Amino acid sequence: MERKEEAQDEVHTHHLPLLTPYKMGNFQLSHRIVLAPLTRQRSYNNVPQPHAILYYSQRTTKGGLLIAEATGVSATAQGYPQTPGIWTKEQVEAWKPIVDAVHAKGGIFFCQIWHVGRVSNQGFQPNGQPPISCTDKPLTPQVRANGVDVAEFSPPQRLSTHEIPGVVNDFRIAARNAMEAGFDGVEIHGAHGYLIDQFMKDQVNDRTDEYGGSLENRCRFALEIVEAISNEIGADKVGIRLSPFANYSESGDSNPKALGLYMAESLNKYGILYCHMVEPRMVTVGEKSDSPHSLLPMRKAFNGTFLVAGGYNREDGIKAVAENRADLVVYGRLFLANPDLPKRFELNAPLNKYDRETFYIPDPVIGYTDYPFLGSTN
Ligand SMILES: Cc1cc2nc3c(=O)[nH]c(=O)nc-3n(C[C@H](O)[C@H](O)[C@H](O)COP(=O)(O)O)c2cc1C
């Protein structure tokens, strides 16, 4: 009797939708569980460190997709301590052994490239200059993700129309650098209230030039970046992350569904590899709430691979793939705390709990590479 149940379990396991292979463009993925981009603030002086080799390789599976933490495209891109960049030769060289380690275990590794825009202050900026944005509207001080510290922001400098191509070019060069570092592709960070999202959202963008006003105008900056990067490295190596429904850092939109749909449809023109969207239920970073909205219209509109993220657990992810609401499911906090997450999902094994307190500390081990693997006595 028991044996029979076991056998049935096994059959069931092998048909787990999350564990079926998937062909994403030229990449043959062995399963659907993706490591989310996760800022860990352990890249001292904006240079990736050797301890990231172990961190990423712990989370690598053969044929698994990993998205690296948000990585600055230029000296003006930063807004948090100890986050990595990819605009200097030193940074590119420092990424190489990390990428090599992921490749050695058969992983596919994309670099998330970002610019924080006004989510910054003069302390993070070259020569103490104001941060740049689409607007000069300041951001009110915000409680940091640790729930304790309050982040202060300097009033931003509104980019003039003729300065915008320079920022697009920074993204293009960062993408080229990512390929030079060995990454398999890049994910453009167009989510969560950072620079690209600031342009897209009508709560922030108050421009009167061709980058403001209509939906088409507000999305122009994002699509120019998509185009520039696609021309530089090939659209088959380009993904983008979007969070039309989110309003982090006072970056909300009055019609998020129209925005998400417009982007999904416009991205088709460039034939990029994937579109990665954050679920409407993620109202603030790390908090889940019920939402009447869904990503289904965008999933249907977009021709490439569709990734979803935000509050997924095992069952939820299985359902999303089984119901064809997503091709791949992106896991943040669960993957952070469970380096062997795909194995645990396969076995339906218990999960380690994540420790919020150590998400963003600079320690090279604690809360970073010391989460135990299944069966280890750690
Ligand atoms: C510690 C931490 C760091 C994060 N850093 C990034 C980041 O660099 N880029 C990004 O797009 N999202 C970032 N996020 C959001 C996650 O990628 C993910 O969308 C979010 O945690 C919700 O997914 P989850 O419920 O699976 O954790 C971060 C989240 C956490 C908890």
From TrEMBL:
Cofactor(s) named in the record: FMN
Taxonomic superkingdom: Eukaryota
Domain NADH:flavin oxidoreductase/NADH oxidase N-terminal: 18-351
Pfam families: Oxidored_FMN
Keyword Transport: no
GO molecular function ontology, one term from the record: oxidoreductase activity
Record keyword Hydrolase present: no
Keywords from the named record: Flavoprotein, FMN, NADP, Oxidoreductase
Family: Belongs to the NADH:flavin oxidoreductase/NADH oxidase family.
Protein name per its UniProtKB record: NADH:flavin oxidoreductase/NADH oxidase N-terminal domain-containing protein
Higher taxonomy: Eukaryota, Viridiplantae, Streptophyta, Embryophyta, Tracheophyta
